[in-house]
Design a protein that fits this description.
The protein is of the alpha/beta class. The chain has ten helices and eleven strands.
């Protein structure tokens, strides 16, 4: 019989690329992960990893196990969901990881509504950015993740998670009030080429969205200043130190020397979604949380948050 813990260790090695990185993600020692892999090799009677220079290479048998393991994990989650439906109903302790803006505008209002409508559901909210948030989801340290589309997040076809689209959050330009473009009703993103830029911290999913939007407009932004709080970013622009893009969901308005203007044409957007482990969405408490997040996102901000959602999400 295959041990789920050993399968999870193999999947982490595949995701992380090394035994050391998988061990760190699983809060184990590299020796313990190696022992898990060795035991799994004995279970299946086949080699699963082979040396490849300073790294390792997964064998074809390992790839078969990883592919089938995702189905097994989803079935286990579905089993827990079905048991919960009979045993506890809408009673559960669930942990939600989300980036700060989503916590303020979507997660916190949803949690407040659930506290009144379903008091048996106890939520713990944690600020978490992708890709770490999804690693924690896989390790069952989080049960729900609110994130945005970016190269570092799992795709729509990822068999490990179930995703539901929440909102399309347009990006607006922020420039100093003294900037030549500040008087315009809308700003062409390409016109900000060659300017010093203010951006979010490196590696944030929103940074990936902003850089991607600029590259689609024909340039890569020269990010000189960085701030993790959107009002601080606008203040840096207001001090005539650079230009940038702000998500409309952040609720920052013009002032303190900065002007916020929409972009011309179809706006680039942060496409927000909620995710849980595949199979877990069937549990009554999880369904209630997902429904509350969708309702909260639909009630937040201008109507285009919903109308701009891509049909594929």
């Amino acid at each position: 019989m295959l041990h789920l813990g050993r399968l999870r260790a193999l999947c982490e090695v595949a995701d992380r690329g090394t035994i050391a990185a998988a061990a760190d993600a699983l809060h184990l020692t590299p020796s313990a992960v190696s022992q898990q892999l060795a035991a799994l090799e004995r279970d299946v009677g086949e080699r699963l990893v082979e040396p490849d220079g300073r790294s390792i290479r997964l064998t074809p048998v390992a790839h078969v196990l990883i592919r089938r393991a995702q189905t097994i994990f989803a079935e286990v989650e579905s089993m827990h969901a079905e048991v919960a439906e009979h045993a506890a109903g809408e009673r559960a302790d669930l942990r939600i990881g989300a980036f700060a803006t989503a916590i303020a505008r979507i997660v916190a209002p949803a949690a407040g509504a659930l506290r009144k409508a379903a008091p048996g559901i106890r939520l713990a909210i944690v600020e978490a950015e992708a890709p770490d948030a999804f690693a924690r989801l896989g390790r069952q340290e989080l049960d729900v993740v609110v994130s945005m589309e970016a190269p570092s997040v799992p795709g729509l076809d990822d068999p490990r998670i179930t995703r539901i689209a929440l909102a399309a959050d347009p990006l607006d330009a922020v420039v100093p009030v003294s900037h030549p473009l500040a008087a315009r009703d809308a700003i062409d993103l390409a016109a900000l080429r060659g300017e010093p830029w203010v951006g979010p911290p490196g590696g944030w999913t929103c940074e990936q969205v902003i850089v991607g939007a600029c590259q689609a407009a024909g340039f890569t932004p020269d990010i000189v200043h960085r701030a993790g709080e959107w009002r601080a970013l606008a203040a840096i622009a207001g001090a005539e130190l650079g230009v940038g893009l702000l998500p409309r969901l952040a609720g920052v308005t013009s002032g303190a020397g900065a002007v916020i203007r929409p972009l011309t044409g179809p706006p680039p957007c942060r496409h927000l979604f909620v995710a849980c482990r595949r199979g877990a969405e069937g549990a009554p408490a999880m369904r209630a949380v997902l429904d509350a997040l969708v309702e909260s996102a639909g009630a937040t901000g201008p109507a285009e948050f919903r109308t701009l959602l891509p049909s594929a999400a």
